[in-house]
Amino acid sequence: MTNKQSKSKVTSFRLSDMAESILEELSSRLGISKASVVELALRKYNEIENNAKTKNNN
Questions:
Q1: Is residue 24 part of a domain?
Q2: Which residues, including other chains, have CB under 8 Å from residue 40's CB and lie 6 or more apart?
Q3: Which of 2, 12, 46, 48 has the fewest CB atoms lying closer than 10 Å?
Q4: Domain residue limits at 55
Q5: Do residues 37 and 30 make contact, with C-beta atoms less than 8 angstroms apart?
């Protein structure tokens, strides 16, 4: 187990049937776990939010 893996926490949440289907499809297409798809989406959202804040501050 790597140091990064040892820091990860178990989180659960409920998804609508449509969201679960989309998550499953993305996971399959990308060849990664559903947890990885969610993490990538959250990181991208954070990146977009930070870029928007930076633009508003200039």
A1: no
A2: 32
A3: 12
A4: 32-58
A5: yes
Q: Going residue by residue through the chain, which has 58 residues, state the pLDDT in tens, using 9 for 90 and above.
A: 455 555 778 889 999 999 999 999 999 999 999 999 999 999 999 999 999 888 888 7
- Written as one string, the DSSP assignment of 1-58 is --HHHHH---------HHHHHHHHHHHHHHTS-HHHHHHHHHHHHHHHHHHHHHHHH-
Contact 34, 27 (CB under 8 A): yes
- Type of residue numbered 54: T
Q: Is 42 within the bounds of a domain?
A: yes
**Alpha-carbon distance values, 8 to 5, 19, 37 (Å):** 5, 23, 15
